[in-house]
């Protein structure tokens, strides 16, 4: 539930930019450091000519994941940005040209317009690190399993950020969690909406972190995880308002017979958030996985 559920709005550039600061603030720095160590270790005595690290960003959107990671990773980087939306790819290139690594090395960009099924088959060649952000709730268990298998075949690491985990809570001004029957009703319906078929069969929704962990374990990976919630307070009102609007639309789709209850819940919670009486926490998890036997 970390994004506006309506597909046209979910992947709009406006929405992606609105959420970027919250995404970057939530991410776990220790997993980023572990990925940096992994990439730095790729140039070894047995691979002395490795001077550039290849990083694939699946479902890259307008480049937020790249903007977060590239300045925090050392060495010359070649980023392969994959998305089905040509306009988002163009914005990613425009906004990310000129990025430098943590040690001021070049960051080279390659944009690839393709769907995610094609990306697994053709987009991971020569990859050192596969990464994605806020992607896997849309996808099926079978797709995640295929990704883990392909990563194993490539011998690459994986860093996946901001997979929703279903932990959503309102808090009052003392920090105490606030929940009533309407919240429980709304969040259960939202979870069901997220599991709808997005084109590949029933989607993972908030089970995405568990499936990622299990799939990479099955393929011999060592996995580390971290909780990375959004904490939306007074400084994040535009994002909170947009998020609640997205949930409002999703609930109308999921439980149309409960429209009045949905409208009442949305109006009350939006008013409380906008007036500063409530804050909102939306749970995510980050995952870093390396092939078994490797060190990071």
Shape: globular
Q: Could you report the average pLDDT, rounded to the nearest whole number?
A: 92
Run of helices and strands? HHHEHEHEHEHEEHHEEHHE
Radius of gyration, in Å, reads 19 Å
How would you classify the helix and strand content by structural class? alpha/beta
Uncertain stretches of 5 or more adjacent residues: 1-10
Number of strands: 9
**What profile does the largest beta sheet have?**
9 strands, mixed
Count of alpha/pi helices? 11
Keywords:
43% helix, 9 strands, alpha/beta, 296 residues, Rossmann fold, nine-stranded mixed beta sheet, single chain, 11 helices
Give the topology.
Blueprint: H1 7-10, H2 13-26, H3 29-40, E1 52-58, H4 64-69, E2 76-83, H5 86-96, E3 107-113, H6 116-122, E4 129-133, H7 141-154, E5 157-171, E6 177-178, H8 181-194, H9 208-218, E7 221-227, E8 230-232, H10 237-254, H11 259-274, E9 279-291
Parallel strand pairs: 1-2, 1-4, 2-3, 4-5
Antiparallel strand pairs: 5-6, 5-9, 7-9, 8-9
Q: Would you give an account of this structure?
A:
The protein is an alpha/beta fold. The protein has a domain at 7-170 and 201-231 and 282-291: 3-Layer(aba) Sandwich (Rossmann fold). The chain is built from 11 helices and 9 strands. The protein has helices spanning 7-10, 13-26, 29-40, 64-69, 86-96, 116-122, 141-154, 181-194, 208-218, 237-254, 259-274, and strands at residues 52-58, 76-83, 107-113, 129-133, 157-171, 177-178, 221-227, 230-232, 279-291. Strands 1, 2, 3, 4, 5, 6, 7, 8 and 9 form a 9-stranded mixed beta sheet that branches. Strand 2 (76-83), helix 5 (86-96) and strand 3 (107-113) form a beta-alpha-beta unit. Helix 7 (141-154) packs parallel to helix 9 (208-218), helix 8 crosses helix 10 (237-254) and helix 10 (237-254) runs antiparallel to helix 11 (259-274). The chain is globular, with a radius of gyration of 19 Å. Residues 1-10 have low confidence and may be disordered.
